[in-house]
Design a protein that fits this description.
The complex is a heterodimer of chains A (about 130) and B (about 850).
Chain A lengths: L6 H17 L6 H5 L7 H18 L6 H15 L3 H29 L15
Helix pairs in contact in A: 1-3, 3-5, 4-5
Chain B lengths: L1 H25 L21 E4 L7 E6 L4 E4 L3 H27 L3 H5 L4 H10 L1 H15 L1 H21 L6 H6 L8 H15 L3 H22 L31 H4 L7 H4 L3 H5 L2 H10 L17 E7 L10 E9 L1 E2 L3 E8 L2 E8 L7 E3 L4 E5 L6 E9 L2 E4 L2 E4 L1 E7 L2 E7 L5 E5 L2 E7 L7 H9 L4 H7 L9 E6 L4 E6 L3 E6 L5 E5 L5 E2 L7 E4 L7 E3 L5 E3 L23 H12 L5 H8 L5 H15 L6 H11 L11 H15 L1 H7 L11 H10 L10 H19 L8 H4 L1 E6 L8 E5 L25 E3 L2 E5 L4 E5 L17 H5 L4 E2 L5 E8 L1
Parallel strand pairs in B: 1-32, 3-7, 6-26, 11-22
Antiparallel strand pairs in B: 2-3, 2-32, 4-5, 4-25, 5-28, 5-29, 7-8, 8-9, 9-10, 10-18, 11-12, 11-17, 12-13, 14-15, 16-17, 18-19, 19-24, 20-21, 20-23, 26-27, 29-30, 30-31
Chain lengths: ~130, ~850
C-alpha cells in the first residue's frame, strides 16, 4: 500500500479544535474545526474530526487536578444515575460527533462541488 | 448514483451535527471548561494580593490552620467590606440560595418544585418584614445600617469581579448566574433565621388539635405547663423572682394560676364549641406555614431546634475567671450556616461565628467578653381566630377591610390577606386564622450583635441586648472578665388575662387560639427589659440554658404559651456542675461532649422492673435484657445497650402514645410525647389508659416486639452497635445527598448534652441525625482561653480541603484554639 497524506488540513483542524474547546463555550463551535477536514477523504474527515473534537474537550480536564474532576463526575453520576465515566466523556463525545460529522459534511459538500472529484487528497503513506 | 450518496451523506451529517449541537447545549453543565468542572479551579486558598475595588486601604486576611479567616482593616468600612467580599468568595451560592428561599423566590432557582416553599414564606411574610426592617434601620439606626451596606458592597464587589464566570458549583449546577446582593438579602435571611426560632405559631395550633381530640384532662397530663421534674432546673435559679418582682407581689398565687385551664373561653375569648369545629382549619393552617424546603426549621415537618449553654461564675472557676460554653443545635448543613472570623480594626476585635450572609459575629468573644445563645421556647407568636365577611375582618364590633398583598410566581398569582394581627394563614368560609409573630415589628438584632462585637464589659453586653429583638427571643449567656450571667433578650408579647377569680395578669403568650375580634385578647406590649429573665453571678456558681423552662412559676409574667424542652440535658448539666466545684476548661469540654441520657437513668429502671416479672425469655431477649441491665446510660457508637433502649422505647411509644395520636389523626401534628411524661405516668399512673391499662404488660409486649425487630433486621447481637443504626448526615443545602457529608456513625441520643437526636421509630436504618451541635465554643476571657469547632469549614466548594476540614475534630469532640494557630494563607485585598 502506498498512501499519501496531506497533513496540513489535519494539523490546522487539530489546532482549531483545541482553540475552540479552550476559548469558546459550546461544543457546536467545533464545526469550525471541521472545515479544514473538507480537504481530506470522507472517512478520514469523520475519523479525524471525531478524534480532535473528542480529545480536545477531554484535554480540558487537564486544567484541573484529576482527583477533583473525578470527584465531580462521581457526584454528578450519582445525581443523574449515570456511570461517572460516562459523565466525564459525555460532553467530549458530543464534541467528537459534532466535529466528526462536521468533517464528513464539509468533505461531502466539497466533493459534491466537484473540486475534489474522484481524487483522494488524503492517503496514508505507508512504506 | 454517487451524487445521490453524497447528498444523503450531507443530509445525514447535517442532521447529526445539528442534533448533537442542540443536545450538547442542554448538557453545557458538563462542559469540562465552563461547566461544573470549573469549580475544581481554585478550590483552595491561594496566598497573594488581589484587587478589590472599593476599599479605602489594603486589608490583610490570613487563614489559620483551622480555616478561620482573620481580617485586619484600617477602618470600619474596609472591615465590613472585606467581610462581605470574603464571605461571598467562600459562600456566595449558599448566601444567594438562602436569601432566595427566605424571600419566597425559590421557584426562580428550581422551577415549580419551589412554589410551595415560596407560597409558605410569602404567607409568613419574611420579605414584608425585611423591607420594614430595612427602612427602620435606614432611618433610625443609620450608623449601624452603614455596616450592613458596606458588607453588601463587599459581596457585590466579589460578584462584579467574577461576574457570570463565577466558579461556584451550585450556580453551575443550576445553570444560573449570581444576582446583585442587597441589604434586603441579608435582612431577609435574618428574618428566616428568626422564623426558624419562633415559638408559638405552630405550637398553639398543635395544642388545640390535641385538646380538640383528647380533651384538657389528657392535655394537662401529657403536656403540663412545666414539663415533669423540671421545676428545679430553670435557667434562672429560684422561684421566678426577677429584680425583686414576682407573681405573688401582684397578689396572685402561682399555684392558683398554674392550675387554670387556659384553653377556656375566659382566657381565649373562644367557646369550646367553636374551637372544636376548627380542627380541619387548624390542620390546614399548620400545613400552610410549614416550609417544605425545611431549611433550617420547618415548624412542623422538621425536628425542633435546640441548644446548650452554661456559664460558670468566678466562685466556681478553677482560676477565678468566669467561663461559658455554647453549642446551638441547628440543622447540620453543608456548607454550615456559620462562618468563622476574626474581625479586627481600630474599634473591633471580635472572633467567632457569624451567619453566612450577615455582617459581624453572632456567637463569639472579644478580648474581655464572650457571648452565646440558646433558644428559650416561650411564645414569640400567637395565633388568632378571625371572623370574616368577604374580605373584611371583625374587630371591636366593626368590619375592617383586610390588607391584600399579591404576588406572582412562575405565572401563578397569589394573595395574602392581612388583619390587624397579621397574615391569614388559613380560612374556611367566614372563619380564618391569623398569625401575630413579633418579627412583624422591625427586629434590630444586627445592632445588638454589632454592639456585642464591640463590648468590653458585662454592662455593655447587657446594654447591647436592649436592641435585640423583638424577634427572636434568645437566652444570652454572657461572660466578662469578672461576671457571668444570663438574660433572655427579645420581645415576649404580653396578653392581658383576667383570671377566673377576677385578678388581672399579663402573661406571655397563649396555649390556644385567641379571639382576634376582641381587643381584650390583643397583644399589649412586651415584657419590660428589667423583668426579662436575667441573673448575674449566681451564688451557686453556675447557670445553664439548654431550652428548659427559663424561670420558676412565680415569674411575674407567666409563660403560659411555652413549649419547653424536656429538661434532660439541663439535668445532666446541673448534676455535672454541682459535682465539680472548681471548673477547668477541660471540664467544660468534658461536659460538652457528655453522651449520657439523664432520662434513660430514670426510665430504664422502670423498664427493667416491668421486665423482671417476665420469666420466659429466648436467647436474644435474654441478651437484650442483660444489655439494658448493665448499661451506664451512655450513647457511644460501639455500644449495644443504647440500640436496645432505642428500639424498646420506640416499640413502647408505638403501642402507647403514638398509637393514640395516630388513631386521633393528629400524630403528624404533635411533637413526640416527652419521656419525662412517660416516666411520671409510669410512676404515678401505671394503669393509665395511655398504657393500655398496664405499664408492665405493655412494656413486656414492647420489649418482645423490639427484640424480634432487631433479630429480623440486625441479626445477631454482635450487629447491634449504636453506630450501626445511628448516623449523622450533614446535608447539602441543595438537598442533593452526594453534595453533603456522611452518613457517619455517631454518638449521642435525644437527651444527651452532645446531642444526636433521632425519632423513636421502629425502623432500620434510623433516619440520620440532621440537627445537632452546629458549633461548639468554650470561652474564658479572663485567661484569654477560647476554643471552638464546627462541623464544616469556611468553603462551600465540595472539592476544597476547607469544605469539611473541621469535621473530624467535631466528630471526636476535639477543639481548635481560636487564637495563635499557624497561618496557612496570607492574602492582601488591595483597593
Amino acid at each position: 500500500m502506498n498512501h499519501k497524506i496531506s497533513t496540513l488540513p489535519v494539523i490546522i483542524s487539530a489546532i482549531l479544535s483545541l482553540a475552540v474547546a479552550f476559548f469558546l463555550n459550546n461544543a457546536y463551535y467545533l464545526v469550525i474545526a471541521a472545515i479544514p477536514l473538507s480537504m481530506i477523504a470522507k472517512k478520514w474527515s469523520l475519523l479525524y474530526g471525531f478524534l480532535f473534537g473528542f480529545l480536545s474537550l477531554l484535554s480540558m480536564y487537564l486544567l484541573y487536578p484529576l482527583s477533583s474532576s473525578l470527584k465531580i463526575s462521581v457526584v454528578l453520576g450519582s445525581i443523574t444515575s449515570l456511570p461517572s465515566i460516562l459523565v466525564l466523556i459525555l460532553y467530549p463525545l458530543f464534541g467528537g460527533l459534532i466535529c466528526g460529522f462536521g468533517g464528513l459534511l464539509f468533505a461531502s459538500i466539497y466533493e459534491l462541488s466537484g473540486k475534489k472529484g474522484n481524487k483522494k487528497l488524503v492517503t496514508i503513506k505507508n512504506n | 448514483m454517487k451524487k445521490k450518496i453524497l447528498v444523503l451523506l450531507i443530509v445525514f451529517s447535517f442532521i447529526v451535527v445539528g442534533s448533537m449541537s442542540f443536545v450538547s447545549s442542554s448538557f453545557n453543565i458538563l462542559n469540562p471548561k465552563t461547566g461544573v468542572f470549573k469549580s475544581a479551579d481554585g478550590a483552595n486558598f491561594t496566598s497573594g494580593n488581589f484587587a478589590v475595588p472599593g476599599l479605602d486601604h489594603n486589608v490583610n486576611l490570613t487563614i489559620d490552620s483551622s480555616g478561620m479567616a482573620h481580617i485586619t482593616a484600617k477602618n470600619n468600612h474596609d472591615l465590613f467590606y472585606a467581610q462581605g467580599y470574603y464571605s461571598a468568595c467562600q459562600r456566595l451560592f449558599q448566601m444567594e440560595l438562602q436569601a432566595t428561599v427566605a424571600a419566597g423566590n425559590l421557584s426562580n432557582f428550581v422551577g415549580n418544585s419551589g412554589l410551595q416553599s415560596d407560597y409558605t414564606l410569602r404567607l409568613v411574610g419574611l420579605s414584608r418584614d425585611a423591607y420594614k426592617l430595612e427602612n427602620d434601620l435606614k432611618f433610625n439606626h443609620s450608623k449601624e445600617f452603614q455596616y450592613i451596606v458596606w458588607y453588601t458592597k463587599g459581596v457585590d464587589a466579589y460578584i462584579n469581579n467574577t461576574g457570570s464566570a463565577s466558579a461556584h458549583f451550585g450556580f453551575k449546577l443550576l445553570g444560573v448566574n449570581p444576582f446583585k446582593w442587597t441589604v434586603f438579602d441579608s435582612l431577609v435571611w435574618q428574618e428566616y433565621m428568626s422564623w426558624s426560632l419562633a415559638t408559638g405559631s405552630t405550637n398553639v395550633l398543635q395544642s388545640d388539635l390535641f385538646v380538640n381530640s383528647l380533651g384538657f384532662a389528657n392535655y394537662s397530663q401529657i403536656w403540663p405547663y412545666y414539663p415533669y421534674y423540671t421545676e428545679n432546673v430553670t435557667m434562672i435559679p429560684g422561684s421566678g423572682t426577677v429584680n425583686n418582682f414576682n407573681l405573688t407581689d401582684q397578689g396572685i398565687s402561682p399555684s392558683y394560676l398554674w392550675n387554670q385551664n387556659f384553653f377556656q373561653s375566659w382566657a381565649t375569648g373562644i367557646s369550646g364549641k367553636l374551637l372544636k369545629n376548627l380542627t380541619s382549619l387548624i390542620k390546614y393552617s399548620c400545613n400552610n406555614i410549614s416550609d417544605p424546603y425545611n431549611l433550617p426549621g420547618s415548624h412542623l415537618t422538621g425536628s425542633p431546634v435546640g441548644s446548650n449553654s452554661w456559664v460558670v461564675a468566678s466562685n466556681n472557676s478553677s482560676d477565678g475567671s468566669p467561663m461559658m460554653a455554647n453549642d446551638p443545635h441547628l440543622p447540620l448543613l453543608a456548607p454550615s450556616l456559620w462562618i468563622e472570623f476574626q474581625l479586627k480594626d481600630p474599634s473591633f476585635n471580635v472572633t467567632g461565628w457569624g451567619l453566612a450572609g450577615l455582617p459581624g459575629v453572632l456567637i463569639g468573644h472579644t478580648r474581655n467578653t464572650s457571648f452565646g445563645l440558646t433558644t428559650p421556647e416561650g411564645n414569640s407568636a400567637n395565633d388568632y381566630v378571625e371572623f370574616l365577611h368577604g374580605n373584611s375582618y371583625l374587630y371591636n364590633n366593626s368590619y375592617i377591610p383586610m390588607q391584600v398583598c399579591s404576588f406572582t410566581q412562575a405565572g401563578h398569582t397569589y394573595s395574602v390577606y392581612m388583619t390587624n394581627n397579621g397574615p391569614l394563614i388559613g380560612r374556611e368560609g367566614n372563619i380564618g386564622i391569623s398569625m401575630n409573630w413579633d418579627a412583624q415589628s422591625p427586629s434590630t438584632d444586627l445592632i445588638a450583635e454589632i454592639m456585642l462585637d464591640q463590648s468590653t464589659n458585662y454592662s455593655q453586653m447587657l446594654n447591647a441586648l436592649k436592641y435585640w429583638g423583638p424577634a427572636p427571643p434568645q437566652n444570652f449567656a454572657l461572660v466578662s472578665l469578672h461576671h457571668a450571667g444570663y438574660i433572655t433578650a427579645g420581645g415576649y408579647p404580653l396578653i392581658r388575662e383576667t383570671l377566673p377569680d377576677g385578678k388581672a395578669v399579663k402573661v406571655v403568650g397563649s396555649v390556644s387560639l385567641l379571639n382576634g375580634s376582641n381587643p381584650k385578647y390583643g397583644e399589649s406590649g412586651y415584657v419590660p427589659f428589667n423583668y426579662l429573665p436575667q441573673k448575674v453571678n449566681p451564688q451557686r456558681g453556675y447557670m445553664f440554658a439548654p431550652n428548659q423552662p427559663t424561670v420558676g412559676k412565680n415569674y411575674p409574667y407567666p409563660f403560659v404559651g411555652s413549649y419547653w424542652a424536656t429538661g434532660g440535658r439541663a439535668e445532666t448539666i446541673d448534676h455535672y456542675l454541682q459535682n465539680h466545684s472548681k471548673m477547668h476548661i477541660s471540664n467544660m469540654m468534658s461536659l460538652q461532649s457528655n453522651v449520657t441520657d439523664y432520662w434513660a437513668t430514670q426510665f430504664n429502671p422502670l423498664l427493667l422492673k416491668a421486665l423482671s416479672q417476665y420469666g420466659l425469655m429466648n436467647s436474644s431477649e435474654k441478651e437484650a435484657y442483660d444489655l439494658l441491665s448493665s448499661w451506664n446510660y451512655s450513647f457511644y457508637q460501639n455500644m449495644k445497650n443504647p440500640t436496645v433502649y432505642q428500639y424498646v422505647t420506640a416499640a413502647f411509644y408505638n403501642l402507647t402514645f403514638d398509637k393514640v395520636l395516630q388513631e386521633k389523626g393528629i400524630y403528624k401534628y404533635t411533637p413526640s410525647v416527652y419521656i419525662n411524661t412517660a416516666i411520671y405516668m409510669a410512676r404515678n399512673d401505671p394503669s393509665s389508659s395511655w398504657f393500655n391499662g398496664s405499664f408492665n404488660k405493655t412494656m413486656e409486649k414492647a420489649f418482645k416486639m423490639a427484640v424480634a425487630f432487631m433479630d429480623s433486621k440486625l441479626g445477631a447481637a454482635s450487629n447491634w452497635d449504636w453506630g450501626h443504626i445511628h448516623s449523622v448526615e450533614i446535608a447539602s443545602l441543595t438537598g442533593i445527598s452526594d453534595l453533603g457529608i456522611g452518613p457517619i456513625p455517631i454518638w449521642g441520643g435525644r437527651h444527651t448534652v452532645s446531642v444526636g437526636s433521632v425519632p423513636r421509630l421502629l425502623e432500620y436504618p434510623l433516619p440520620c441525625v440532621s440537627i445537632g451541635s452546629s458549633l461548639r465554643t468554650i470561652a474564658r476571657p479572663g485567661s484569654s482561653s477560647f476554643y471552638g469547632v464546627f462541623p464544616g469549614g469556611p468553603s462551600e466548594n465540595i472539592l476544597s480541603y476547607w469544605f469539611d476540614n473541621q469535621v473530624p475534630k467535631w466528630i471526636n469532640h476535639e477543639y481548635y484554639p481560636m487564637q495563635g494557630l499557624p497561618v496557612e494563607v496570607r492574602i492582601t485585598y488591595e483597593p
